[in-house]
Amino acid sequence: MHQTVQPKGWPRPKGYSNGVVAQGKTVYVAGQVGWNAKEVFESDDFVAQTEAALANIVAVLAEAGARSEHLVRMTWWVVDKSEYLDRLTEIGAAYKRVIGAVYPAMSLVEVAGLVEAGAKVEIEATAVIPT
Asked: 98-116 pLDDT, tens per residue?
């Protein structure tokens, strides 16, 4: 398992940790977009693409013998920060459906575009499988 790190006096962040300490076998998951296994976007909806990207992360983790609770770091790139903020409740529900109550260290960055045409979100992850 891993331990979250929160400096004394800081408020608890919502939906992520400020830091994570972990030891074990590291799994690095490249940025995943919200398409299916055939690299086809089934939706242009932001939340649907987010849920699909998270499911893709879980699928890659499974190949390495890892589970979502082993996640220690995630970086999200979004093409529209306003849409992300406006739909936080729906995104949170999708996250909990796919990942569960797991709160790795996270960052979110708004970008002008992503490599895959039609992608609205890309998420990169790091997991540590305990030894």
From this structure: 999 999 999 999 999 999 9
The architecture in CATH of the region 26-130 reads 2-Layer Sandwich (3.30)
| pLDDT tens by residue, 44-54 | 999 999 999 99
Would you list the domain boundaries of the chain?
A: 26-130
Nearest-angstrom CA–CA distance, 27 and 69: 13
